[in-house]
Amino acid sequence: MMKKIIAVAAFLLCSTAAQAGIVMGGTRVIYQEGKREAAISVTNADTHTPYLVQSWVENYAENDKSKVPFIVTPPLFRLDPEQNNVLRINFIGASLPGDRESVFWLNVKSISPTPQGEVNKLQVNIKSKFKIFYRPNGLAGDPAKAWQQLKFTQSGGHLTVANPTPYFVSFYSVAVGGQSIDEPGMVAPFGQKTWPVSGHGAVKWRAINDYGGVSDFAQQ
């Protein structure tokens, strides 16, 4: 039993180290229509371990099997200790909806090497996902203020938010009557999202902006 506990602890420590090694230069990517590319930096913060970094873009919905309109370069590269590189995201597909944002996933996998001569050691792969927001030109309103325009309604043990803007709004927190909603997610342009709630009262929320920062509280 003790050996099993030690093995699990060692795995967790190894995973944490690998995750801490690769640092991304943002939590999301905004791809403005007409731009040649969008870019995000990748840094190996580890002082000893090199990593193999693999990246690709996939559709946001798991059941969406349509061709992804983005490529990432370089798709696979070695990143030595305390070095950095830049992922460049290029749009190569047909036109996307022009009246609202579209969202995709940027996947970044970091692979640590197996130490030479230690074939029984576990090789750790860490995969992270970052949202890519494709933003058409000419959308109405200010994306930095979209979170302030949300409308909340409560009925029958449910809270519903309506987004009247052409922008995605990613929530940092949502609370009803002082009770927080776990993992509130985001609401799509011109869309709605509903959560089951046990409380009733004032709704307070905060949103995540284009730079990964958190807004002030809004209340309704």
From TrEMBL:
Q: Name one GO biological process term.
A: cell wall organization
Q: Which UniProt keywords are listed? A: Chaperone, Fimbrium biogenesis, Periplasm, Signal
What SUPFAM superfamilies is this protein classified in? PapD-like (SSF49354), Periplasmic chaperone C-domain (SSF49584)
- What is the annotated localization of this protein? Periplasm
Leader sequence range is 1-20
Which parts of the sequence belong to the Pili assembly chaperone N-terminal domain? Answer: 21-139
Pfam families per UniProt: PapD_C, PapD_N
Which GO cellular component terms are attached?
A: outer membrane-bounded periplasmic space
Q: What is the protein's name according to its record?
A: Fimbrial chaperone LpfB
Record lineage = Bacteria, Pseudomonadati, Pseudomonadota, Gammaproteobacteria, Enterobacterales
Q: Which Gene3D superfamilies match?
A: Immunoglobulins
